[in-house]
Write a structure and sequence with these properties.
The chain is an alpha+beta fold and about 500 residues long. Helix content is about 45%, strand content about 20%. The protein is built from 16 helices and 16 strands. The strands form four sheets. The protein has an eight-stranded mixed sheet, with helices on both faces. Strands 1-2-3 form a three-stranded antiparallel sheet, with helices on one face. Strand 2 and strand 3 form a beta hairpin. The longest helix has 25 residues.
Length: about 500
């Protein structure tokens, strides 16, 4: 026979138990419900015992299969809630890449919070405390940033080794591009300089960033230069530094036309390195442009190929590109005509307007010359014995590095920069690099954007509850259907 009994404890409280009478008057304790400190708590415990005996499941929350703990909803109080799942999820990828081997907790925490909610460094440590109960003092932050600067090579090495293990990376093909990060300031120094800005912030100091990624857009290496450094000047130092550091004897680098110069090509040839670089067809002699246009004859999947001082020049034609070139030109011509219609005094000469003997008019010769280049794209390479189509396909994969820059600037809010000291700026760049590595690893694994993944994992909330009667604490994860589907997808 199963029944409820109460017994006094040594502390003069009352213990409520469920017992079973066995043969010869012996009893067996089935379940200890809890200890009551006053008549009300004792009655509540008895009610719980009745529920347990009758197995009324709708009134049971968070059953524990091993201990068969249960509680009534009205006896629960909220202790705390948080986003532990989001932190743990991102930390898993941080560890998978191998960053945990650096034993730098600040790097981990600042990289994770950068993905979740980008902010200044001071705001970041406030968010870490708010969301995860992780505490850093401002002094610890400042000292830690200096330590992060010292382990730049180790951070990059972790990323490279991960790419080798999981992404079939072997340095045979890398992609390089440059961007700028500006400051919310107008004060320059030896490092922060005004220069050509890709963020349209030409009056504000900036730094120049050179990023190397693999074919998946996963970051391999990052270099930082003074803000007034011409982007082409970053090309050779970034490439050669990587070669020297990892003793690379042979690889191919893909880069945009801005990286091209005769000097660069000679330097790469000297070091027996291969390249595929965009060529500016507009910079070729007029006769050469006409020759290329006639050879291609507005036909797709045909190629023009010739040797030049910059290597082998390959050109192809795209109808889609031709349509865009024509559309862009027509917009500029329309703008030029509008300016001419308003005034005969023009301070700054727009494209397609010429000045002859003090008079302004539409430059018909330039329009004709522009039409010749419609749909034509050029590429320089020193690779031999590889089909033109393959060269072009490799160049078009350059969008991966452009996407990585977009993630850094948009999702990770790499700019504007608020730090002043060079060492802390370099630490900021390495935090961005680490966060980008985590983000790309997640995107490659899930085939979802980091923004969408971030939204999913942030919706998963862990709540911590406590039974006011028994003192037992419970933790439960709550998520919406989309987040639940995401979790199932990851587990599969």
């Amino acid at each position: 026979m199963v029944r409820i009994r109460t017994i006094s404890t040594r502390s003069k409280n009352t213990s409520v138990q469920i017992i079973e009478t066995i043969s010869h008057g012996k009893i067996r304790i089935i379940k200890h419900i809890g200890t009551g400190h006053n008549p009300e708590e004792i009655e509540n415990l008895k009610e719980l015992a009745k529920i347990y005996i009758n197995q009324i499941h709708p009134s049971i929350l968070f059953p524990d299969k091993e201990n068969t703990d249960f509680t009534r909803v009205e006896n629960l109080e909220l202790i705390s809630y948080g986003h532990d799942y989001a932190y743990k999820f991102l930390a898993i990828f941080y560890n998978l890449i191998g960053f945990n081997n650096l034993n730098n907790k600040l790097l981990q925490d600042l990289s994770i919070i950068r993905i979740i909610e980008p902010a200044s460094k001071i705001q970041s440590i406030e968010l870490l405390k708010k969301y995860f109960g992780i505490k850093y003092s401002e002094g610890t932050l400042n000292r830690g940033l200096l330590e992060i600067t010292k382990i730049k090579n180790q951070i990059e090495n972790c990323a490279i080794e991960y790419a080798k293990r999981n992404l079939n990376f072997n340095f045979s093909l890398i992609f390089y591009d440059v961007t700028t990060l500006y400051y919310e300031s107008f004060k320059e120094d030896d490092f922060r300089k005004a220069g050509f800005s890709k963020d349209n912030k030409s009056n504000q100091p900036q730094i120049v960033i050179g990023l190397i990624v693999n074919k998946d857009g996963f970051p391999i290496s990052i270099q930082t230069y003074k803000g007034n450094t011409f982007e082409g000047k970053t090309f050779i130092p970034s490439i050669l530094k990587l070669c020297n550091l990892y003793n690379i004897q042979r690889f191919t680098v893909v880069a945009d036309a801005g990286m091209l110069s005769e000097e660069h090509m000679k330097e790469l040839e000297k070091n027996k390195l291969f390249y595929i670089v965009g060529a500016r067809v507009a910079n070729l002699p007029k006769k050469e442009q006409e020759k290329i246009s006639k050879s291609l004859n507005k036909t797709e999947k045909t190629y023009y190929k010739t040797k030049t001082k910059n290597g082998i020049l390959i050109c192809d034609y795209s109808q889609k590109r031709a349509n865009k070139d024509k559309s862009d030109r027509e917009k500029q011509i329309k703008k030029a005509k509008k300016i001419l219609g308003k005034s005969q005094t023009i301070n700054r000469l727009p494209k397609y307007i010429k000045q002859t003997e003090g008079k302004f008019s539409i430059n018909e010769d330039l329009i004709t010359q522009s039409e010749i280049k419609d749909g034509i794209k050029g590429y320089y390479t020193n690779l031999k014995g590889i089909k033109e189509q393959k060269i072009i396909e490799k160049y078009h994969e350059l969008w991966h590095v452009e996407k990585s820059f977009r993630i850094s600037k948009s999702d990770l809010s790499a700019r504007p920069i608020y730090l002043r000291k060079k060492e802390k700026i370099l630490a900021h760049i390495m935090i961005i690099f680490t966060a980008l590595s985590i983000s790309k690893a997640i995107e490659i694994k899930t085939k979802m954007s980091i923004k969408k993944v971030r939204d999913y994992i942030w919706e998963i909330i862990n709540i911590n509850l406590k039974d006011k009667i028994t003192g037992i604490e419970y933790t439960k994860s709550l998520q919406n259907q989309q987040s639940n589907n995401f979790m199932n997808f990851i587990e599969d």
